[in-house]
Amino acid sequence: MQIKINTLADIRCAAQQFVDNKGTATVFAFYGKMGAGKTTFIKALCQCLGVEDIVTSPTFALVNEYHSAQLQRPIFHFDFYRIKTLDEVYDMGYEDYFYSGSLCFLEWPELIENILPTDTAKVTITVQVDGSRVIEF
Q: How many folded domains does the chain comprise?
């Protein structure tokens, strides 16, 4: 599926479209260049899912946990940009998150592809020449 975001004002509608069509996957790997809007889109997804917490990039914490009145489980938001070895991911107990049944949104999954669950949904955000974004999943 493709969703186009023409302007930042469209992001909430695009996020709702994504939520409505995400299927049964729980782990979502977000691919895109620096500045493509991965964190911004994940923030919009969390808002659509009823998260009232402040959603920020977990660049230094590696994982943030958010809660929603709509969902029975937490949402986990990962940023693997600063990971240097897979041992760091093993040490954080990634399996407890990825196989928990909770939604997991992963930024920079390229660095851990070897350990992603086989049913991970791959989401690509591409910046277009006109500055719009195309989300494919």
A: 1
